[in-house]
Amino acid sequence: MPLTDRDRRTLIIGGGILGVLLLGFFLFNSLAGGGGDAALPTLPPITVAPTGGPGVPGSESPSVAPTTGQEPVFTGRDPFSIPPALAQVTTSPPVPSVTVSGSVTVTIPPPTTTTPITPTTPPPSNPGGGSSTVKGDKTVVLLDTFQQGGEPMVQVEVDGTVYNVGIGEPFGGGSFELRSVSGDCATFLYGDEPFTLCANSTK
After folding, report:
1. DSSP annotation string for 86-136
2. Residue 142: phi, psi to the nearest 5?
């Protein structure tokens, strides 16, 4: 049976009185200088009024205010039990669902690819051995000397473009002119400036 507030107060007050009596007894015994053979006096029994009546000094019950009918009602509950609010199982709220009507069109652009640019005109060659030279900003290469219809001709390359020209014919956009052919060598004009190139014969 759980103790009421009145029973707890009674036990506390009774325990305090008992402690005071024991302390007084030990102080009295030490001050009186009683011998070790003296018999201990018998303490009178302590009566604790269960209702907190006038039998014990200081145990008077406090005055109780008149009830108004709105006081909180306390019910007996195990203090070590889980409160009902915490004992409820918590559930996560439902996830709201979204309904999309209609169709959605997603356009994915095609992947971009880089196409290497292939030059239409091969880069000009610049072989050594006196078969090439640079005039202005153009590279001139004598590729071969030959005869066609009994007339000497040359195969010459200007900035990657190959020409077959005879004596006196301009080429390379009119900037060059073939003047003469002698064996594997030929003399050209660049404006008014003459220059000579010799083909590297592999024969």
Report:
1. HHSPP-PPPPPP----S----PPPPPP--PPPPPSSPPPP--STTSEEEET
2. -85, 115
pLDDT digits 0-9 by tens, 3-61: 677 878 888 888 888 888 888 888 887 776 655 555 555 666 666 555 544 544 554 55
Among residues 51, 73, 48, the alpha carbon closest in space to that of 6 is found at 51
The predicted model scores a pTM of: 0.37
From the number of C-beta atoms within 10 Å of its C-beta (0-12, 13-18, 19+), residue 176 rates as buried
Closest Cα to residue 84, out of 73, 93, 75? 75
| Residue scoring higher pLDDT (80 or 50) | 80
Q: Report d(CA 45, CA 50) in Å as an integer.
A: 15
CA distance linking residue 175 with residue 138, whole number of Å? 10
> How far, rounded to the nearest angstrom, does the alpha carbon of residue 21 sit from its chain's CA centroid?
75
Q: Give the tens place of pLDDT for each residue, 115-166.
A: 555 544 444 455 555 789 999 889 999 999 999 999 999 999 999 999 999 9
Residues forming beta bridges with residue 193, ordered by sequence position: 190
Strand stretches in the chain, DSSP E: 132-135, 138-148, 151-158, 161-166, 170-171, 176-182, 185-190, 193-198
User: At which residue do the structure tokens 């003296």 appear?
Assistant: 38
**Count of CB atoms situated within 10 Å of the CB of 13:** 18
